[in-house]
């Protein structure tokens, strides 16, 4: 193969971003290929939609697969470059005039076969230079993948914390207005209790707002550290084989330490003091709700006097689901057009539930569709989130985190 053809072949294995041989190449949906690390670093603040740097077409690909063919060809191209480098006169062993083919992992030096078996290096661990370089490069890529996953997790958490910080004051004000509204319905001698509860809620709200800002700052700082470490590993990965082996040092250990102590979202809990007499007043409007058997989903089993239900189990508590269940939705038998009503629902140890009320228009329109937050529906729901439970309401949408009960 003449040099011109070889250069054309080598150019096809060059990443258009870093202008080096491909490292873990990926091909995006427009057909262009890049090093995975280079493509990731181009995402910046938009990790779910990025433009191809070659044709500017947008791609939303996230789970990119390695282009095995390009990876093998790029590895061969690096081996050719390594062979040409080691075959040069300057790289010959000064003692034995042999080509250096071995890498000493103890003192990170290149040796010929005779030097590797000498008394000085006999007890050291050696391996062929080309295989050592590829092994070190793969270790770097694995660590980079871990870093990137943590960076994406941190990015998501930062977005959550930013949104929560932006909406926090409005949320606190809504809570304050709700408490004031309840006390307006009560005798005047509750004024001191109202004042105390409002002051405590304001104080907690300000404290949490300050902690949210600190949490957001920690995540932003961690993002910079993760990106900086990722860029350093990427730079190391693209070094020629010999430079990579000799400069490897403690970079893996340093990258491991960056992954420790990742900041987590604050998940604030804004609790208010008890309102004297509230339960007694609510009990004045207590009603007993039963479930409407005729409209229950086939995966829902109703028990007793239609006040208990189980989802996904038969009457012997054996798990059961239809092939294509719709929504696990059960309707109450009672309806109302005006007035005040109060009832309690016991959910036990379950999670991912929602209870609420809707108007007839919403029911007729959404009988077989997913539950959403459009007009005509009000829900109180709970979603399991690791060791936390997320409580939310719709119309308006409000979210609050509470610790999982320990009992």
TrEMBL record:
<dbReference type="GO" id="GO:0008270">
    <property type="term" value="F:zinc ion binding"/>
</dbReference>
<keyword id="KW-0862">Zinc</keyword>
<dbReference type="InterPro" id="IPR003879">
    <property type="entry name" value="Butyrophylin_SPRY"/>
</dbReference>
<dbReference type="GO" id="GO:0045087">
    <property type="term" value="P:innate immune response"/>
</dbReference>
<dbReference type="InterPro" id="IPR013320">
    <property type="entry name" value="ConA-like_dom_sf"/>
</dbReference>
<dbReference type="GO" id="GO:0010468">
    <property type="term" value="P:regulation of gene expression"/>
</dbReference>
<dbReference type="InterPro" id="IPR013083">
    <property type="entry name" value="Znf_RING/FYVE/PHD"/>
</dbReference>
<dbReference type="Pfam" id="PF15227">
    <property type="entry name" value="zf-C3HC4_4"/>
</dbReference>
<keyword id="KW-0479">Metal-binding</keyword>
<dbReference type="InterPro" id="IPR001841">
    <property type="entry name" value="Znf_RING"/>
</dbReference>
<feature type="domain" description="RING-type">
    <location>
        <begin position="15"/>
        <end position="56"/>
    </location>
</feature>
<dbReference type="InterPro" id="IPR050143">
    <property type="entry name" value="TRIM/RBCC"/>
</dbReference>
<dbReference type="GO" id="GO:0005737">
    <property type="term" value="C:cytoplasm"/>
</dbReference>
<dbReference type="InterPro" id="IPR000315">
    <property type="entry name" value="Znf_B-box"/>
</dbReference>
<dbReference type="Pfam" id="PF00643">
    <property type="entry name" value="zf-B_box"/>
</dbReference>
<dbReference type="InterPro" id="IPR043136">
    <property type="entry name" value="B30.2/SPRY_sf"/>
</dbReference>
<keyword id="KW-0863">Zinc-finger</keyword>
<dbReference type="GO" id="GO:0061630">
    <property type="term" value="F:ubiquitin protein ligase activity"/>
</dbReference>
<protein>
    <submittedName>
        <fullName>Tripartite motif containing 49B</fullName>
    </submittedName>
</protein>
<feature type="domain" description="B box-type">
    <location>
        <begin position="88"/>
        <end position="129"/>
    </location>
</feature>
């Amino acid at each position: 193969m003449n040099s011109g053809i070889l250069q054309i072949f080598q150019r096809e294995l060059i990443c258009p971003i870093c202008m080096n041989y491909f490292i873990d190449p990926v091909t995006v949906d427009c057909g262009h290929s890049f090093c995975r690390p280079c493509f990731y670093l181009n995402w910046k603040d938009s990790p779910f939609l990025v433009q191809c740097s070659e044709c500017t077409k947008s791609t939303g690909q996230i789970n990119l697969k390695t282009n095995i063919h390009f990876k093998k060809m790029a590895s061969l191209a690096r081996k050719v470059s390594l062979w040409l480098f080691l075959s040069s006169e300057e790289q010959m062993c000064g003692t034995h005039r042999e080509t250096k083919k071995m890498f000493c992992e103890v003192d990170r030096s290149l040796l010929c076969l005779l030097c590797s078996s000498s008394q000085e290096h006999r007890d050291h661990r050696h391996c062929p230079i080309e295989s050592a370089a590829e092994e070190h490069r793969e270790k770097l890529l694995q660590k980079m993948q871990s870093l990137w996953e943590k960076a994406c997790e941190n990015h998501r958490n930062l977005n959550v914390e930013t949104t929560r910080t932006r909406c926090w004051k409005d949320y606190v004000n809504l809570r304050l207005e709700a408490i004031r509204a309840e006390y307006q319905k009560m005798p005047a001698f509750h004024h001191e209790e109202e004042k105390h509860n409002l002051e405590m809620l304001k104080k907690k709200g300000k404290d949490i707002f300050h902690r949210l800002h600190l949490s957001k700052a920690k995540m932003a700082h961690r993002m910079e550290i993760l990106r900086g470490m990722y860029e350093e590993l990427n730079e190391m990965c693209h070094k020629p084989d010999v430079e990579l082996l000799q400069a490897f040092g403690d970079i893996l250990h340093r990258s491991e330490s960056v992954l420790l102590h990742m900041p987590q979202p604050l998940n604030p809990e804004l609790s208010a003091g008890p309102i004297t007499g509230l339960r007694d007043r609510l009990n004045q409007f207590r009603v007993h709700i039963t479930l409407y058997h005729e409209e229950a989903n086939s995966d829902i089993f109703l028990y007793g006097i239609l006040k208990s239900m189980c989802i996904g189990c038969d009457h012997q508590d054996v798990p059961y689901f239809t092939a294509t269940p719709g929504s696990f939705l059960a309707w109450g038998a009672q309806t109302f057009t005006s007035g005040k009503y109060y009832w309690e629902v016991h959910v036990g140890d379950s999670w991912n539930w929602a209870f609420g009320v809707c108007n007839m228009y919403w029911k007729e329109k959404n009988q077989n569709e997913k539950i959403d937050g459009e007009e005509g529906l009000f829900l109180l729901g709970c979603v399991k989130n690791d060791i936390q439970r997320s409580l939310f309401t719709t119309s308006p949408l409000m979210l609050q985190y509470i610790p999982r009960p320990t009992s």
